[in-house]
Amino acid sequence: MAVESIPRRTVVDLLEARLRDDILSGTHEPGSLLPPERELAAGYGVTRTTLKHALTRLEQAGLLSTRHGIGTRILDYLRVGGADLLPMLAAQDPTWLREVFEVRRQIGTLIAGRAADRRTERQARRLEHLLRQVADGPDADAVQLADVEVHRELARATGNRVYLLLTNTLFNAYLPVRAALRAPFEDAARAADRLAPVVRAVVGRDGEEARRAAETYLAATEKIMLGSLGSPRGRPAADSPR
Fold this sequence. Notes:
Elements: H1 11-24, H2 37-44, H3 48-60, E1 64-67, E2 71-74, H4 77-80, H5 86-92, H6 95-118, H7 121-135, H8 140-157, H9 161-174, H10 188-203, H11 207-228
Antiparallel strand pairs: 1-2
Helix pairs in contact: 1-3, 2-3, 5-6, 5-9, 6-8, 6-9, 6-10, 6-11, 7-8, 7-10, 8-9, 8-10, 10-11
């Protein structure tokens, strides 16, 4: 069996994570200017070159704005940021996950009803195939990722590409910490049984039942996943530069 190598984290990676956490936690307040580069680099114990690379990444992520002759300013991400920030926000502060899951439940319920009204025969067969992959998953990670694909197909079945992009955004927000959220997927058969009523309703073109089943499924898995975060086993590990 091939073993996937663990990517090495560079000093730039670690500094980016530390700066990101300091920004999102309020150590560097929105609207304020960061200290001059020389001072900031010394404070974090890195070279200015390393600092520049990390700042560039954070600027691309929408957390910073650099203007020549003025400096680097912390942006108010809640005012100017987009949903692409959710993965780093959820990784930095698990309370974001509760809000992500609330939206997941509401959007997922709506998607299931739309999918039941609009799905094609091919999509119905695809959903049934993906549900079997959930049941056949060899481990919790495989089951969880198979579950994700069912929900992507439900979003695709609505015929509305915006629903699919929204679904991707919500999954991207918590997939980086999915190891801490594996509890509903440790028993493949039970995971498939929970999801089956949603698929059956969509395949049967019963929009009302699809919405009801999706609400039940999403609320149940949300409760299990968020509950698992309270245990030491379920807490995401925090990275910090040394």
